[in-house]
């Protein structure tokens, strides 16, 4: 997965559709990221922090009992074991170190499930940066425990009461605050979305997932490379990071969207939050609310590079329903002793559905990125299973 | 058959330049299409109160640059069933002697197609377009489609915009240069900072197109303050807040009339 064009495009998608006031901030960020990413000192500090603080590399675990049941060889890339419980920390450590290098004193973040908010609050505490997290009021309610965690970590959580009160609204609100504070605050976007350079920068910070997994698969699999690489897709950062490690191999790349938030599966090209990509919208161009059991995938758009990977045919995108996801969550818990996040269970739901069919024939090897742990979802799942 | 006045409406920049040449400070009120049942009456009344052009907000579900008032106005308009098509049909019926400018977000424009969207604006008698989240760098294809359809594309300048870029904005855009008083979202403010005066001065130094200051113009005082540095003002949230509070067309227009009077003294 290469660098976007100079105007921030992956094929027909991406770009930088922001109010004029934010253009200098986006330009500066692009230059600063480019310089930092080419600077061995920055790369070294990030690698060291990922290792000594975030616990990388995360392991790849063979899902032995579940594999036997499904007739495929399933490997799990364990981002749930990274500090704060999801892959979000990879990106936030990168952006946090970059923000500090740029002399910014505050981090702004949007969050859906709360995982990115928790990761940002954590890195803010680690680096001594003030953190303000915008979160839809509906998500504040659904993810009460994560709100408390963010506050314990010293962050301010601002509930957003406009629109559908979920991730899309939190994102709009974070942008509004950034316009007023772009000289002191860095907007730490949580996924491969937003205006250029964010989709590219966040994918580069998440590339570590795919690169580690590539090496681990080489050790674990006779063929060296799995037949299929699968990850869940909301904005798409864990999938982008995973795919980046395998895009130049023979592996099939599969992204799994939430059925109620399938931008690629049921949307059309549109512009939201600074970028052009597939988007759930009506005939007039009004953005439709996504509906998913998983707050982290409750987003009407998808990162622009995924739209490009879909259009170019290099990756394919499928979806999983809420019911399939809950079934998958329980299955993994009871066969492997791993309680995975609802988001990650979308990827697993597809594996359960596809195993033994022509989509995923018996005997296939599959690498699945388990993007986060499910502790945050326990209360909600208890309600849903009642 | 109803006669529409769309053919009679003046082109935007020519009209603003003419008014300016009469030593008049320009007033451009903003109305969210569909914010209330009588929003079209409000548009007409604002013209009678001395507006030099009217900015019509085509409501979008996710307005990234708006403060809470215009967000609420947009949301209310959408709840009342407003769409781009309905708004354009409605304004095509108005008989006005000042230009209309549509303000909206990229996605609505892209959804209808640049060419189609601009043609429909033109057919409805709109002469200007402010695509608030389409910056200079992304505006090329839209400006081309707008030109073909005799629509002038107004670009926004911000306090953070460097001089060389201001020059490009003034050159590539047309109608007027929309200078934002603050680094922030739309909404009322009690006074304008030095940023507003500085930006207006910098824009004027690189173009003779009309320069209007917008964001934070809440009444006669802020309007006068802004008009000392620019050719006029855009006023939105102050009017829409009054509409949202349930004030009548006369009451809302009263504010515009006060601002018009105050501007006469500048």
Write up this protein.
The complex is a heterodimer of chains A (386) and B (266). In chain A, 45% of the residues lie in helices and 18% in strands. Chain A contains 15 helices and 14 strands. Chain A has a six-stranded mixed beta sheet, sandwiched between helices. In chain A, helix 5 packs parallel to helix 7. Chain A is globular and about 55 Å long. The model of chain A has no long low-confidence stretch (mean pLDDT 96). Chain B has twelve helices and nine strands. A nine-stranded parallel beta sheet of chain B has the order 5-4-3-2-1-9-8-7-6. In chain B, helix 11 packs antiparallel against helix 12. The longest helix of chain B has 16 residues. The interface between A and B is large, with 37 and 44 residues.
Radius of gyration of chain A: 19 Å
Number of domains of chain A: 2
CATH architecture of chain B: Alpha-Beta Barrel
Helix content of chain A: 40-55%
Q: How many helical stretches of chain B? A: 12
Oligomer class: heterodimer
Give the radius of gyration of chain B: 17 Å
Largest interface: A-B, 37 and 44 residues
Top-tier CATH class of the largest domain in chain A? Alpha Beta
Shape of chain B: globular
H-E string of chain A: EEHHEHEHEHEHHEHEHEHEHEEHEHHEH
The beta-strand count of chain A equals 14
**Strand and helix order of chain B:** HEHEHHEHHEHEEHEHEHEHH
Pfam families (chain B): Trp_syntA
Keywords (chain B): Amino-acid biosynthesis, Aromatic amino acid biosynthesis, Lyase, Tryptophan biosynthesis
Subunit structure (chain B): Tetramer of two alpha and two beta chains.
Protein name (chain B): Tryptophan synthase alpha chain
């Amino acid at each position: 997965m290469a660098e976007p064009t100079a105007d921030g495009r992956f094929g027909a998608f991406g770009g930088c559709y922001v109010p004029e006031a934010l253009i200098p901030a986006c330009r500066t960020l692009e230059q600063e990221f480019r310089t930092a990413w080419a600077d061995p000192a920055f790369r070294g500090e990030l690698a060291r922090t990922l290792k000594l603080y975030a616990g990388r590399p995360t392991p790849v675990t063979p899902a032995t009992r579940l594999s036997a049941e499904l007739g495929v060889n399933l490997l799990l890339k364990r981002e749930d074991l990274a500090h704060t419980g999801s892959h979000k920390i990879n990106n936030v450590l990168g952006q946090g170190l970059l923000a500090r290098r740029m002399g910014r004193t505050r981090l702004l973040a949007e969050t859906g499930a709360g995982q990115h908010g928790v990761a940002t609050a954590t890195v803010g505490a680690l680096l001594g940066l003030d953190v303000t997290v915008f979160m839809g009021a509906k998500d504040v309610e659904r993810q009460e425990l994560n709100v408390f965690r963010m506050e314990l970590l010293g962050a301010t959580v601002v509930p957003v009461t406009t629109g559908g009160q979920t991730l899309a609204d939190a994102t709009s609100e974070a942008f509004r605050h950034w316009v007023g504070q772009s000289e002191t605050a860095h907007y730490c976007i949580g996924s491969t979305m937003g205006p250029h350079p964010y989709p590219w920068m966040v994918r580069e910070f998440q590339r570590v997932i795919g690169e580690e997994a590539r090496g681990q698969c080489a050790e674990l699999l006779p063929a060296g490379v799995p037949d299929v690489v699968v990850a869940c897709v909301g904005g798409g950062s864990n999938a982008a990071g995973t795919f980046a490690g395998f895009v130049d191999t023979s592996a099939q790349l599969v992204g799994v969207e939430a059925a109620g938030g399938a931008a690629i599966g049921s949307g059309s090209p549109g512009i939201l939050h600074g970028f052009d990509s597939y988007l759930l919208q009506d005939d007039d161009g009004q953005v439709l609310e996504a509906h998913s059991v998983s707050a982290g995938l409750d987003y009407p758009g998808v990162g622009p590079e995924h739209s490009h990977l879909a259009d170019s045919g290099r990756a394919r995108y499928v979806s999983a329903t809420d019911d399939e996801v809950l079934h998958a969550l329980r299955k993994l818990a009871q066969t492997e002793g791993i309680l995975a996040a609802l988001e990650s269970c979308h990827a697993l739901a597809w594996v359960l559905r596809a195993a033994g069919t022509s989509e995923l024939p018996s005997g296939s090897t599959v690498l699945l990125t388990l993007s986060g742990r499910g502790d945050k979802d326990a209360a909600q799942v208890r309600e849903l299973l009642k | 058959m109803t006669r529409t006045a769309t053919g009679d409406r003046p082109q935007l920049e020519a009209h603003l330049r003419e008014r300016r040449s009469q030593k008049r400070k320009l007033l451009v009120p903003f109305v969210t299409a569909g914010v209330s049942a009588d929003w079209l009456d409000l548009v007409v009344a604002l013209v009678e109160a001395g507006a030099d052009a009217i900015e019509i907000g085509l409501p979008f579900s996710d307005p990234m640059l708006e403060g809470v008032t215009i967000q609420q106005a947009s949301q209310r308009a959408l709840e009342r069933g407003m769409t781009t098509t309905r708004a354009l049909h409605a304004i095509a019926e108005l008989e006005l002697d000042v230009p209309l400018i549509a303000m909206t977000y990229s996605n609505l424009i892209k959804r209808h197609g640049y060419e189609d969207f601009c043609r429909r604006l033109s057919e409805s008698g709109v002469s200007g377009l402010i695509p608030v989240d389409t910056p200079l760098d992304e505006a090329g294809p839209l400006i081309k489609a707008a030109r073909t359809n005799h629509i002038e594309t107004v670009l926004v300048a911000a306090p953070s915009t460097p001089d060389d870029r201001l020059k490009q904005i003034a050159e590539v855009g047309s109608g007027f240069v929309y200078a934002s008083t603050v680094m922030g979202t739309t909404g009322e403010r009690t006074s304008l900072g030095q940023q507003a005066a500085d930006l207006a001065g910098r824009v004027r130094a690189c173009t003779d197109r009309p320069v209007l200051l917008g964001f934070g113009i809440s009444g006669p005082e802020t309007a006068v303050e802004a008009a000392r540095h620019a050719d006029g003002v855009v006023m939105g949230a102050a009017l829409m807040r009054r509409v949202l509070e349930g004030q009548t067309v006369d009451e809302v227009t009263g504010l515009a009339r006060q601002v018009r009077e105050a501007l006469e003294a500048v």
